[in-house]
Amino acid sequence: MTQDTARQPLPSPATPARVLLPAILPALVVGVLASLLLLLVSELAEQLQSVLWGNLPDALGVGRYSVLWMVTMLTATGLAVGLVVWKVPGHAGPDPATTGLDAPVLPPVVLPGLLLATMLMLAGGPSLGPENPIIAVNVGLAYWLGRRLLPRAPGRVWPVLAEAATIGALFGTPVAAALLISEALAGRRTEGPLWDNVFAPLVAAAAGAMTATLVAHPSFDLGLPPFGQPGWGDLLSAVVIASVGALLGMAAVRAFPYVHGAFARLRHPMLALPAGGVVLGLLAALGGHLTLFKGLDEVGELAHDPDGWTAGEFATMTVVKLAALLVATSCGFRGGRIFPAVFVGVTLGLTAHAVVPAVHPAVGVATAVLGVLLAITRQGWVSLFVAAVLISSPAILALLCIASLPAWLLVTGRPQMQLREDGRAIR
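The line above is the sequence of Ion channel protein; the predicted structure tokens follow.
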């Protein structure tokens, strides 16, 4: 045995199958319940949205997406969410500017108010998605129920199962959850092989994904023109666009503490949230109704006709949506940043295609989404995954992997779009 070989650490022993098997049933239950809660909140929000943005303006004889109605509805949404944050027990959880996908375990009293604030936000039009608050609710419920029904199980397992299950349900596949968990475990000291550590979370993610697929049939493919074999021009486009997307996202990240601080000076949710609603309404008047809501349905509409808007219109939507994401997160609306960041990336990629028609829309969209998500989420694997699933072409993967390298150099070590409780940015 050589000296170098002797210095190598011994591999961690694998976990016996008899230890992993009892985790399957709890993981399946958590996966199904977490997915059903996400689907229920999403469906209720869609029904309320159809009333607020369809039935009500029609009955009043007001244009559904007129400037007057958009400003009115977003201001009213700020008032409604502000009332929940002010009066409902638990105040709808912590400041959303201080939270990410890795949710804290919240007391059960907080969860109803957080669900209500999330549903109102989704229906009212602010540019945020459901991921952060729904993960937080599922983590709180799983921890509370798990500790009572299976008190001998380690308490730390329930948040991991709930996070994996919710991410699997959000994307309709357990792959995103596996990538996210693997990335999180890379910075921790764990016992046993990687697959032993992700076994139960993968079961929960698969159960969540299958439940969402069977009930709601989610799809993220934008249906852009098919992309063939990449060439040198595609490689150059991918590197440049991903880097521009990362820089654009970092501009919002840099502004985040200042915008959050401006709303924090109002010192009350019934002031900060309506004020944020007014600003969001004015931004919607500038960017158009497609810049409202979380953005997933809206990017589908844009992708069906990538040549249907001018470069100026795409660029305006890009800037407006990014500003709306920044304002909505800063003023106190409960929501996540992934889906609106995807919208920003899609419109940025379509801007590149409109300016330089030689840029394939699939290349522009995928690499711009990658760059923006790297800056906003700082999650490399998840950013690659989301960018890839938008384009149904295996050939895009190589371009994304290469384009991620310069984009990551631009964002790594920089402030994140998440604040400490004192309002300072996390690095």
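Note on the example: The CA atoms of residues 176 and 382 lie 6 Å apart. The chain is about 70% helix and 0% strand.
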